[in-house]
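Researcher: First entry.
Model:
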Amino acid sequence: FKVMHCLRAAHSGGGLLHLSELRLEAVDLTSFLIPSFGDLLESLSKAGGPKLSTLSLCGNKIGPEAQLGALFACHTLTNLAELDLSISDLRNGSFVSFSHGLVDGNLPMLQELRAAEAHLVTDDVVALATAATCANVLRRLTKLDLSMNDVGSTGAKAIIDAAGEGAWPKLEELLLCHSGVQSPGDLVLGRSDFGALPALEVVLLIP
């Protein structure tokens, strides 16, 4: 409670307007605090996202009932470049809602997206890949971490198929460790191979 109270107090006094980095990592930001976090996102969104470029919620083990992804789908953070949702529970449509928000232009400047160990399944990855094929969605993304999720060969195929349709043009790092992707061959199942990802430099696959 103290964390969110301090953040709300700082924002009400204009203290967050110049904040560029916010890390709420492993601070017991459990689901009962999500309404307060939603209020904070709404305030930041209405202020044009101020200067916030990095937001990490890693390690909070936020449950699916919080619908964390849906919160981001409802708010626009125009300057956010790095977002870490790792070690959360984004099941039950939460990550799909997040992806729909990307299509609506809610995170136009996003460069790094981390959602490792977030209980994602193939449908979640497909939703993200589908969103990435839309105009001006994730065009600046350089790093995508979906490690320790149930991506599988179907999810990997969706990522590569999306690249064949123009997605991920600046992607440099693709992390799929312990995600059910057994070999590089699983990533060459679509209409294109890594050649469709011109900026790609690092691919991490650990079965």
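Researcher: Second entry.
Model:
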Amino acid sequence: DNPNSSILSSVAVFNAIPQSTGAIIKLGDSQKTAITSSDRLFFGNYVTYKNWFSGNFNVIVENQSNNVWHSMQTNVFLATGRFYSLFLYNNKGIKTLLSEDNILSPSAGKVKIRVAHLGDNLANVNVESSAASGLLFRNIKYETVSEYIEIDAALLHNFTVQSVDGEIKLFSKEEKKLENKGIYTILIKGYVAANGNTDAIDFSIIKQ
């Protein structure tokens, strides 16, 4: 580990691990706790930006599913003063995906939105909105976080996520009015062949 505890970065965390009832994250050899049980980081939940170390260091993820805890360790490099998202998901064990975030405010009357495709067993996806012409996102691969794009904030959006093979089509639960100059992530999560509704494939629209 070579973290700098006096010069910080900022990290948000998304939990896309099916059946997760909580996750804890510890940083570096000191195992400083960045995400605690009180943050309620369960499946589909999100914890907003917190100050982490900068530099190169290990991250330990502990996840609870079915009253059993599992852990994994990964190494990250976080640049000073930058903003990141860490996505937790399952692919034959706990995995992480780190993205550097452009959090500059969108133009007036616009929102920024991106897609994080962590839906296991789901092919590449296209994303569209009833309030926009054409596709918003095209051919987004599994284990990928797209770049942000800007769309109109004043309109009601009903989002559709469809696999490029046409096998799966997911719809927003309701039309959504997005907050002017807000920043959002469409989080695709869960299993195509799920055992129950709690971890079935779906998506949520998370305001950061």
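Model: Note on the second entry: The first strand starts at residue 2 and ends at 16.
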